[in-house]
Amino acid sequence: xxxxxxxxxxxxxxxxxxxxxxxxxxxxxxxxxxxxxxxxxxxxxxxxxxxxxxxxxxxxxxxxxxxxxxxxxxxxxxxxxxxxxxxxxxxxxxxxxxxxxxxxxxxxxxxxxxxxxxxxxxxxxxxxxxxxxxxxxxxxxxxxxxxxxxxxxxxxxxxxxxxxxxxxxxxxxxxxxxxxxxxxxxxxxxxxxxxxxxxxxxxxxxxxxxxxxxxxxxxxxxxxxxxxxxxxxxxxxxxxxxxxxxxxxxxxxxxxxxxxxxxxxxxxxxxxxxxxxxxx
Amino acid sequence: xxxxxxxxxxxxxxxxxxxxxxxxxxxxxxxxxxxxxxxxxxxxxxxxxxxxxxxxxxxxxxxxxxxxxxxxxxxxxxxxxxxxxxxxxxxxxxxxxxxxxxxxxxxxxxxxxxxxxxxxxxxxxxxxxxxxxxxxxxxxxxxxxxxxxxxxxxxxxxxxxxxxxxxxxxxxxxxxxxxxxxxxxxxxxxxxxxxxxxxxxxxxxxxxxxxxxxxxxxxxxxxxxxxxxxxxxxxxxxxxxxxxxxxxxxxxxxxxxxxxxxxxxxxxxxxxxxxxxxxxxxxxx
Lengths: 280, 285
Fold this sequence. Notes:
The complex is a heterodimer. Chain A contains 12 helices and no strands. By secondary structure, chain A is mainly α. Chain A has a single domain, classed as MetI-like (MetI-like fold, Orthogonal Bundle). Chain B is an all-alpha fold. Chain B has one domain (about 40-285): Orthogonal Bundle (MetI-like fold), CATH 1.10.3720.10. Chain B is about 75% helix and about 0% strand. The radius of gyration of chain B is 23 Å and the shape is globular. At the A-B interface, helix 1, helix 3, helix 4, helix 5 and helix 6 of A face helix 1, helix 4, helix 5, helix 6 and helix 7 of B.
């Protein structure tokens, strides 16, 4: 009875995840698939060829998306790590207020932010440029990295740094051999989240990029909204969803190895396990 | 420099980004009380909104979408977390599944649900094969219909896992110990849920609900792809106005941005009040 309940639960979870994603996989390889057929009349790679054609800009957009997401991941993680270090290790005045301010952007409506930023950029000459878009992506990514890095620093023992310094290690050696390895799980989780925020961003990219900065979500939206080309929509969808899932998988595997290696030093690092929870 | 101030200095770069965002929001608000070129002072954009029946419809629709998505996601997440609470393997499986859905961008979820739920979509084909519907027109209009069913389904699919993860993070061993304690005292499943599990998970649930409400109220992609054209969700309406070539539509679009921000600010205040009461109830005044 219990076994049956368990299997039913697992089956439900699988159906829940697969229901919207499985049709994407079929559509991506479907040639003709006229209603009411349950399976495509024929299978083809035409949509993939179409996506690879230069005039569709898919490859260029993937590059732009990757560049923006990696820039956001690195910048937001560095800023988040610095802020968390200041907040947790130094307990500055008004730490509560600063923390609240740093987390507040998670509630900011993307449309309001984008139109306001557009006003600033038009004055500063940053509109319709990748650098401007990267700056905008930083805003919604920052609360996640701050929160994750605060969690990372909560279990961090700063005396290890002082010990290494006393033993004659240089500042850069301390950073390389003490700080970064100890914070690695939190840094990885925070970079993953920031990558995901930037990678999924649509509205702010359109409004601030002015249609000049083309990312994968922009192509996906216009294909899904207007073209009626379901096969190409599915291909773009797969290209959009594969990197995040891959990233989460690789991240989880790296964390497991890291935890195994550090098992004697720190019994449980809770920072990383709570981290991806806040992504939306 | 005293170390306390050094700590503040470390937060400065991140604070600068927030200040940039805050300044941008102020400029957007300023534009809503100006003329089409961003000059002068005028409340005509807001007066125009109040006279426009489409605005009330959009506001109501967005409130409906956000409230229903939040309530449904919270209820589903609570039910699922409650169902697996006893089993460690169940919790692990649930967490993996929830994370996998979190990695899926909202836009992609919306596009995928369009393929699934449209008149000639997979579900419609299945009901046809089962003999329940006669053709695409006979299938209920989930996408772009008069009720935002496809929008709500997409949001619940994305947000219920998000709430689940927030709840699982709050579901610490201490909570489980208390549950076991009240069980040995003879409490049934429902009383356990009411007197232990819910009160202890309530702060995390409040936080998660606020984030879901704020997101679903302000998000553009899903209602733009899956919603009807009349009435349009508030963010969709705002983007359309912003792209319009009419000069007078610009302050109106910015006024909508202010309205969206106000609603979210009110929701945040309400959530803060609830959190404070929850804390008081637990610790006493």
